[in-house]
Write a structure and sequence with these properties.
This protein is an alpha+beta fold. The chain contains 16 helices and 9 strands. It has a domain of about 80 residues: Winged helix-like DNA-binding domain superfamily/Winged helix DNA-binding domain (Arc Repressor Mutant, subunit A).
Amino acid sequence: MSAPTTPGSPEPVSLKLQTLDDWRNERYRRRPDLRLRSRDQALAFINDVGFCFTFHGRDAEAPSLFEAVCGERRAIVTVHDDADLGRTWHWKDELPASGAVYYAKLLRKRPTLISLDLLPYFYALSPNYGDIEDYILEYQEGHLSDEARRVYETLLSEGAMPTSHLRRKAGLEGERNALRFDRAVRELQISMKIAVAGISDANRWGYCFVYDVVLRRWPDLPKQAGAISSREAKHRLTLAHLRNVGAARLSDLTSLFGWDKAEFTPLVSAWVATGELLTGGRMDGFHGEYLVWPELIQAALPRPKRRSRCAGLLAKPAAHG
Protein backbone atom coordinates (compact mmCIF):
# COMPACT_ATOMS: atom_id res chain seq x y z
CA MET A 1 0.00 0.00 0.00
CA SER A 2 1.36 3.42 -0.81
CA ALA A 3 0.74 7.04 -0.01
CA PRO A 4 -2.50 7.34 1.96
CA THR A 5 -3.33 11.00 2.58
CA THR A 6 -2.47 11.79 6.19
CA PRO A 7 -3.93 15.01 7.66
CA GLY A 8 -1.20 17.13 9.25
CA SER A 9 1.62 15.09 7.76
CA PRO A 10 3.93 16.81 5.23
CA GLU A 11 4.81 13.54 3.55
CA PRO A 12 2.67 10.55 2.57
CA VAL A 13 3.27 7.34 4.49
CA SER A 14 3.73 4.01 2.76
CA LEU A 15 2.32 0.86 4.33
CA LYS A 16 3.67 -2.62 3.85
CA LEU A 17 1.53 -5.73 3.66
CA GLN A 18 3.26 -6.96 6.80
CA THR A 19 2.07 -3.88 8.70
CA LEU A 20 -1.52 -4.60 7.73
CA ASP A 21 -1.14 -8.27 8.61
CA ASP A 22 0.33 -7.40 12.02
CA TRP A 23 -2.56 -5.04 12.68
CA ARG A 24 -5.15 -7.67 11.82
CA ASN A 25 -3.40 -10.36 13.80
CA GLU A 26 -3.70 -8.18 16.88
CA ARG A 27 -7.28 -7.07 16.28
CA TYR A 28 -8.38 -10.59 15.29
CA ARG A 29 -6.47 -12.16 18.24
CA ARG A 30 -4.50 -14.26 15.79
CA ARG A 31 -1.57 -14.44 18.19
CA PRO A 32 -0.86 -17.12 20.80
CA ASP A 33 -0.61 -14.50 23.56
CA LEU A 34 -4.02 -13.06 22.64
CA ARG A 35 -6.00 -16.25 22.00
CA LEU A 36 -9.36 -16.73 23.72
CA ARG A 37 -9.32 -19.19 26.59
CA SER A 38 -12.70 -18.70 28.27
CA ARG A 39 -16.32 -17.84 27.62
CA ASP A 40 -15.84 -14.40 29.16
CA GLN A 41 -12.86 -13.71 26.90
CA ALA A 42 -14.93 -14.76 23.87
CA LEU A 43 -17.67 -12.32 24.87
CA ALA A 44 -15.13 -9.54 25.48
CA PHE A 45 -13.66 -10.20 22.03
CA ILE A 46 -17.05 -9.90 20.29
CA ASN A 47 -17.81 -6.73 22.26
CA ASP A 48 -14.44 -5.28 21.26
CA VAL A 49 -14.58 -6.01 17.52
CA GLY A 50 -18.34 -5.32 17.38
CA PHE A 51 -19.13 -8.19 15.02
CA CYS A 52 -17.37 -11.21 13.64
CA PHE A 53 -18.00 -14.38 11.68
CA THR A 54 -17.97 -17.77 13.36
CA PHE A 55 -15.41 -19.01 10.82
CA HIS A 56 -13.31 -16.98 8.42
CA GLY A 57 -13.94 -17.11 4.70
CA ARG A 58 -12.54 -15.81 1.45
CA ASP A 59 -15.61 -13.83 0.45
CA ALA A 60 -15.27 -11.18 3.18
CA GLU A 61 -12.51 -9.80 5.40
CA ALA A 62 -13.48 -9.70 9.09
CA PRO A 63 -12.47 -11.23 12.43
CA SER A 64 -13.63 -14.77 13.20
CA LEU A 65 -14.31 -16.46 16.52
CA PHE A 66 -12.50 -19.62 15.41
CA GLU A 67 -9.20 -17.90 14.61
CA ALA A 68 -9.39 -15.93 17.87
CA VAL A 69 -9.83 -19.19 19.76
CA CYS A 70 -6.89 -20.73 17.88
CA GLY A 71 -4.68 -17.66 18.31
CA GLU A 72 -3.45 -18.02 14.73
CA ARG A 73 -4.49 -18.32 11.12
CA ARG A 74 -5.87 -21.79 10.73
CA ALA A 75 -7.87 -23.68 8.15
CA ILE A 76 -11.27 -24.87 9.34
CA VAL A 77 -10.88 -28.39 10.67
CA THR A 78 -13.26 -31.23 9.89
CA VAL A 79 -12.44 -33.51 12.83
CA HIS A 80 -14.96 -33.20 15.63
CA ASP A 81 -12.55 -33.89 18.50
CA ASP A 82 -10.41 -30.79 17.83
CA ALA A 83 -10.21 -28.76 21.08
CA ASP A 84 -10.25 -25.32 19.42
CA LEU A 85 -13.18 -26.28 17.22
CA GLY A 86 -15.02 -27.59 20.27
CA ARG A 87 -14.54 -24.35 22.20
CA THR A 88 -15.61 -22.27 19.20
CA TRP A 89 -18.70 -24.40 18.71
CA HIS A 90 -19.65 -24.25 22.38
CA TRP A 91 -19.22 -20.48 22.76
CA LYS A 92 -21.01 -19.62 19.50
CA ASP A 93 -23.96 -21.65 20.86
CA GLU A 94 -23.83 -20.60 24.50
CA LEU A 95 -23.41 -16.84 24.06
CA PRO A 96 -26.52 -16.33 21.87
CA ALA A 97 -28.54 -18.72 24.05
CA SER A 98 -27.76 -16.57 27.09
CA GLY A 99 -28.73 -13.40 25.22
CA ALA A 100 -25.21 -11.98 25.51
CA VAL A 101 -24.82 -11.55 21.74
CA TYR A 102 -26.94 -11.59 18.59
CA TYR A 103 -26.38 -14.52 16.24
CA ALA A 104 -27.88 -15.03 12.79
CA LYS A 105 -26.97 -15.42 9.15
CA LEU A 106 -26.60 -11.78 8.25
CA LEU A 107 -23.49 -10.35 6.59
CA ARG A 108 -22.77 -12.10 3.28
CA LYS A 109 -25.52 -14.56 4.36
CA ARG A 110 -23.01 -16.08 6.79
CA PRO A 111 -23.33 -16.79 10.52
CA THR A 112 -22.51 -13.50 12.23
CA LEU A 113 -22.04 -12.73 15.93
CA ILE A 114 -22.94 -9.14 16.85
CA SER A 115 -22.38 -7.28 20.11
CA LEU A 116 -25.46 -5.84 21.78
CA ASP A 117 -23.90 -2.36 21.55
CA LEU A 118 -23.78 -2.52 17.75
CA LEU A 119 -27.07 -4.39 17.33
CA PRO A 120 -29.28 -1.23 17.17
CA TYR A 121 -27.08 0.14 14.34
CA PHE A 122 -27.59 -2.99 12.28
CA TYR A 123 -31.33 -2.97 13.02
CA ALA A 124 -31.60 0.72 12.04
CA LEU A 125 -30.53 -0.30 8.52
CA SER A 126 -32.90 -3.27 8.28
CA PRO A 127 -36.22 -3.13 6.37
CA ASN A 128 -38.15 -3.23 9.66
CA TYR A 129 -40.13 -0.33 11.11
CA GLY A 130 -40.09 -1.68 14.64
CA ASP A 131 -43.52 -3.32 14.81
CA ILE A 132 -43.69 -7.05 15.30
CA GLU A 133 -46.30 -7.22 12.51
CA ASP A 134 -44.29 -5.28 9.89
CA TYR A 135 -44.07 -8.51 7.96
CA ILE A 136 -47.72 -8.25 6.83
CA LEU A 137 -47.10 -5.19 4.67
CA GLU A 138 -43.85 -6.65 3.35
CA TYR A 139 -45.67 -9.80 2.33
CA GLN A 140 -48.51 -7.86 0.69
CA GLU A 141 -45.99 -5.79 -1.29
CA GLY A 142 -44.13 -8.89 -2.44
CA HIS A 143 -41.00 -8.31 -0.35
CA LEU A 144 -41.46 -11.42 1.81
CA SER A 145 -41.92 -14.93 0.47
CA ASP A 146 -44.90 -17.06 1.43
CA GLU A 147 -42.61 -19.62 3.09
CA ALA A 148 -40.94 -16.92 5.19
CA ARG A 149 -44.36 -15.59 6.21
CA ARG A 150 -45.45 -19.04 7.34
CA VAL A 151 -42.29 -19.60 9.37
CA TYR A 152 -42.53 -16.16 10.98
CA GLU A 153 -46.20 -16.51 11.86
CA THR A 154 -45.50 -19.91 13.41
CA LEU A 155 -42.86 -18.42 15.69
CA LEU A 156 -45.14 -15.49 16.51
CA SER A 157 -48.00 -17.72 17.60
CA GLU A 158 -46.10 -20.69 19.04
CA GLY A 159 -42.99 -19.09 20.53
CA ALA A 160 -39.34 -20.07 20.12
CA MET A 161 -38.83 -23.58 18.78
CA PRO A 162 -36.22 -25.88 17.23
CA THR A 163 -35.98 -26.17 13.46
CA SER A 164 -37.36 -29.72 13.48
CA HIS A 165 -40.63 -28.56 15.08
CA LEU A 166 -40.68 -25.34 13.09
CA ARG A 167 -40.58 -27.20 9.78
CA ARG A 168 -43.59 -29.29 10.73
CA LYS A 169 -45.71 -26.52 12.21
CA ALA A 170 -45.02 -24.19 9.26
CA GLY A 171 -46.11 -26.93 6.86
CA LEU A 172 -42.64 -27.26 5.32
CA GLU A 173 -41.59 -30.68 6.57
CA GLY A 174 -40.22 -33.40 4.32
CA GLU A 175 -37.32 -33.66 1.93
CA ARG A 176 -39.13 -31.92 -0.94
CA ASN A 177 -39.57 -28.79 1.23
CA ALA A 178 -36.05 -28.73 2.72
CA LEU A 179 -34.71 -26.05 0.38
CA ARG A 180 -37.84 -23.93 0.70
CA PHE A 181 -37.61 -24.02 4.49
CA ASP A 182 -33.88 -23.22 4.53
CA ARG A 183 -34.42 -20.26 2.17
CA ALA A 184 -37.25 -18.95 4.34
CA VAL A 185 -35.18 -19.13 7.54
CA ARG A 186 -32.24 -17.44 5.80
CA GLU A 187 -34.53 -14.73 4.42
CA LEU A 188 -35.90 -13.98 7.88
CA GLN A 189 -32.43 -13.85 9.42
CA ILE A 190 -31.06 -11.48 6.76
CA SER A 191 -34.04 -9.15 7.30
CA MET A 192 -33.44 -9.34 11.08
CA LYS A 193 -36.86 -10.80 11.88
CA ILE A 194 -35.65 -13.98 13.56
CA ALA A 195 -32.40 -14.99 15.23
CA VAL A 196 -30.82 -17.97 16.93
CA ALA A 197 -32.06 -18.25 20.51
CA GLY A 198 -30.47 -21.56 21.54
CA ILE A 199 -29.82 -25.15 20.50
CA SER A 200 -31.83 -28.34 20.82
CA ASP A 201 -31.36 -32.09 20.39
CA ALA A 202 -34.84 -32.45 18.88
CA ASN A 203 -33.83 -33.93 15.53
CA ARG A 204 -32.25 -37.14 14.24
CA TRP A 205 -28.72 -35.71 14.52
CA GLY A 206 -29.24 -34.54 18.10
CA TYR A 207 -28.35 -30.94 17.26
CA CYS A 208 -30.32 -28.07 15.74
CA PHE A 209 -30.92 -24.38 16.27
CA VAL A 210 -33.80 -22.86 18.20
CA TYR A 211 -35.16 -19.72 16.55
CA ASP A 212 -37.19 -16.87 17.99
CA VAL A 213 -38.63 -13.56 16.82
CA VAL A 214 -36.05 -10.77 17.22
CA LEU A 215 -38.47 -8.25 18.72
CA ARG A 216 -39.70 -10.72 21.31
CA ARG A 217 -36.13 -11.44 22.35
CA TRP A 218 -35.05 -7.77 22.32
CA PRO A 219 -38.26 -5.73 22.80
CA ASP A 220 -36.37 -2.45 23.33
CA LEU A 221 -34.52 -2.74 20.02
CA PRO A 222 -36.96 -0.63 17.94
CA LYS A 223 -36.71 2.25 20.41
CA GLN A 224 -32.91 2.04 20.44
CA ALA A 225 -32.69 1.85 16.65
CA GLY A 226 -35.36 4.50 16.10
CA ALA A 227 -33.05 7.20 17.41
CA ILE A 228 -30.33 6.26 14.90
CA SER A 229 -30.33 7.70 11.38
CA SER A 230 -29.19 5.67 8.39
CA ARG A 231 -26.14 7.92 8.05
CA GLU A 232 -25.23 7.49 11.73
CA ALA A 233 -25.65 3.72 11.52
CA LYS A 234 -23.41 3.43 8.47
CA HIS A 235 -20.86 5.71 10.12
CA ARG A 236 -20.68 3.59 13.27
CA LEU A 237 -20.46 0.28 11.41
CA THR A 238 -17.87 1.58 8.93
CA LEU A 239 -15.59 2.84 11.68
CA ALA A 240 -15.98 -0.39 13.65
CA HIS A 241 -15.06 -2.45 10.59
CA LEU A 242 -12.12 -0.26 9.50
CA ARG A 243 -10.73 -0.38 13.03
CA ASN A 244 -10.68 -4.16 12.75
CA VAL A 245 -9.41 -4.67 9.21
CA GLY A 246 -7.09 -1.63 9.02
CA ALA A 247 -7.76 -0.98 5.33
CA ALA A 248 -10.51 -1.84 2.87
CA ARG A 249 -11.74 -0.82 -0.56
CA LEU A 250 -15.05 0.96 -0.91
CA SER A 251 -16.37 -2.04 -2.82
CA ASP A 252 -15.34 -4.33 0.06
CA LEU A 253 -17.49 -2.29 2.44
CA THR A 254 -20.56 -2.11 0.20
CA SER A 255 -20.29 -5.82 -0.56
CA LEU A 256 -19.98 -6.79 3.12
CA PHE A 257 -22.87 -4.65 4.35
CA GLY A 258 -25.00 -4.76 1.20
CA TRP A 259 -25.05 -0.97 0.80
CA ASP A 260 -25.60 1.04 -2.36
CA LYS A 261 -22.25 2.40 -3.57
CA ALA A 262 -23.69 5.61 -5.01
CA GLU A 263 -25.31 6.50 -1.68
CA PHE A 264 -22.34 5.42 0.41
CA THR A 265 -19.57 7.23 -1.49
CA PRO A 266 -20.55 10.80 -0.41
CA LEU A 267 -20.68 9.66 3.21
CA VAL A 268 -17.16 8.26 3.00
CA SER A 269 -15.93 11.52 1.43
CA ALA A 270 -17.36 13.44 4.40
CA TRP A 271 -15.62 11.15 6.90
CA VAL A 272 -12.33 11.46 5.02
CA ALA A 273 -12.68 15.26 5.11
CA THR A 274 -12.92 15.17 8.92
CA GLY A 275 -9.89 12.88 9.20
CA GLU A 276 -11.84 9.94 10.62
CA LEU A 277 -10.72 7.86 7.64
CA LEU A 278 -7.81 8.22 5.24
CA THR A 279 -7.91 7.58 1.53
CA GLY A 280 -5.49 6.99 -1.34
CA GLY A 281 -3.98 3.72 -0.18
CA ARG A 282 -2.90 1.17 -2.75
CA MET A 283 -2.10 -2.43 -1.94
CA ASP A 284 0.73 -4.21 -3.71
CA GLY A 285 -0.71 -6.94 -5.92
CA PHE A 286 -4.30 -5.72 -5.53
CA HIS A 287 -6.40 -3.38 -7.63
CA GLY A 288 -8.24 -0.32 -6.38
CA GLU A 289 -7.84 2.41 -3.81
CA TYR A 290 -8.09 1.61 -0.12
CA LEU A 291 -9.62 3.46 2.80
CA VAL A 292 -7.28 3.32 5.77
CA TRP A 293 -7.83 3.43 9.52
CA PRO A 294 -5.69 6.39 10.75
CA GLU A 295 -4.04 4.48 13.59
CA LEU A 296 -2.68 2.01 11.06
CA ILE A 297 -0.64 4.84 9.55
CA GLN A 298 0.77 5.66 12.98
CA ALA A 299 1.69 2.01 13.46
CA ALA A 300 3.67 2.14 10.21
CA LEU A 301 5.64 5.27 11.05
CA PRO A 302 9.30 4.62 11.92
CA ARG A 303 9.93 5.09 15.60
CA PRO A 304 12.46 7.83 16.44
CA LYS A 305 15.77 6.52 17.62
CA ARG A 306 16.28 6.91 21.33
CA ARG A 307 19.29 8.96 22.18
CA SER A 308 21.81 7.10 24.27
CA ARG A 309 22.36 8.54 27.71
CA CYS A 310 26.08 7.91 27.33
CA ALA A 311 26.10 9.72 24.01
CA GLY A 312 24.50 12.71 25.71
CA LEU A 313 27.17 12.75 28.40
CA LEU A 314 29.94 12.53 25.84
CA ALA A 315 28.44 15.45 23.94
CA LYS A 316 28.59 17.76 26.95
CA PRO A 317 31.46 20.27 26.92
CA ALA A 318 34.11 19.65 29.52
CA ALA A 319 33.69 21.67 32.69
CA HIS A 320 36.39 24.25 33.40
CA GLY A 321 37.42 24.75 36.98
